[in-house]
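3.2 Worked example (two chains)
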Amino acid sequence: MRTIYLIRHGEPDTTIHDDVRRPLTPAGEQQALDLVPLFQNVTLDAVYASPFTRARTTVAPLASAHDLAVQLDMRLQERQLPGWLKDFSAYAKQQWQDLDYTQPGGESIHAVQQRYLSFFNGLPEAGTFAIGSHGMAMSSIVEYVNAGQGAAYFDTIQGHYGVVLQLIMAAGQPPRITPWPTR
């Protein structure tokens, strides 16, 4: 059985429009530190992250606390946007209405799902993994597991960072996803 913890990056500094290099704010750095005690009773086999600065720096304290390195993988990056969007909400809404929609230079929600699933399927069949991720990517996995719920999940995490989802993938069973830790 694979247990995967998808961790949304901490609060980003949105004054930096470079999606790859956008750092965390001081609040985002604290959110990264706040993850460590949540995982104190979890044995992690590996920590992975999107190569985007905000995702990898979010899981760095967690990896360090478990004596692990953060392993970067391009398949874990956020959805490719067609550029800086003045009306991000309208674009996201259109993508949720048509999971294959994108503008030139962008990427569809289905494409993000396929990248992430490719990564998950390459993990060992048994183990526990933490992944520094992004909101739309996590929402695409919610949509994959619970069709029709990805957009609602995406809406609920807007303005919330350091959010964790637990994904259980057991052979012969449908994947299960739940917010974590459960309260």
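3.2.1 Second chain
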Amino acid sequence: MNTKEYILQFARLVVIAILLMGCYQILHPFIPAIVFAMVVCISTWPIHLQLRRALGGNTTLASLLMIGGMILLVIIPSALLAFSLADNVTAIIDAVKVFMQQGSIEPPAWLKDTPFFGEQFIRYWKGLMSGGKEVGMLLTGLLEPLKNFLLNLGNVIGKSLLQMVFAAFIGFFFYRDGEALIQMLHNGVAKLLDGSLGTDPLVQIHNTVTGVVYGIFGSALAQAIAAMIGFLIAGVSASGAFLLGSATFFLSVIPMGPSLIWGGVSVWFLYEGSYGWAVFTVLWGIFVISSIDNFVRPYLISRGSNLSFLLVVLGASGGIIAYGFIGIFIGPPILAIGITLVQLWTSQPLPPIKITQTNHQH
């Protein structure tokens, strides 16, 4: 290859690099939406195929119905949760502050009737409240970080709603043109890797994504539905049960996250004097909601991926830091895909190393 050909090849590489950088700059704001749409479409593709067959092969209508389901199950609950946090957190925290600053707070009536330990609890409560307004100010100061956290959470969810809307728009085209996109991606991966992994990585990626999504978000949806049913049985209003169920869905990726919801509801029932419903909420949370987390999630994840729960939490937390609230959906699948590809590469045997011996003469 002469000097002129080297210059032409270098110029081509420079042009390609510039084009790739330009494409990245253009698409960079939409990367979370694109990845989210990919995760949703990959994990729900079998449902899309069944729906398309039921509609006589009408791909456009099937794609629209799938996007409608995504809006109904994910985007609308996220919007309602964000608006509820923004509207109600400040008022609730301020009301609690006023209540705490009143000085000594009388213990609830049910505390005195607690078997065996009622008098001890009352003495401990009065000792704690003996500080009067000082204790109230201390507890009020502790509420301020909680208020800021919940408000920031609402803002993060609100900012991610636009990405979810873009994801719904992008997802329609992924559903409609899915076969062509998969074939193009398959050809590109085949040329790039040249069979070096010994297996089709797209099959492994599909199994991994579906396993993680079904395990994490399938169990999260089941927990949310179970929590909502329990709250409705306990007499919570339909709107309140829906919002509490939505919060249970999003907190399910955090260890002991759902217990913050049903535990808080049970405490509220206790203070209201509804002891039976408080006990029911605790039992429902332990034996129904937590059972889904302890048994259903590991089973679903193990069917398509061996991603540990620690990596699930790291993926969700890192996804939130990197992409905002939408990262809770795309963080674990991205991490699972990376680990799967590393496992495929490292599982391939290396060619034997030939060691030549040389005789050294002294």
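3.3 Remarks
The CA atoms of residues 235 and 277 lie 9 Å apart.
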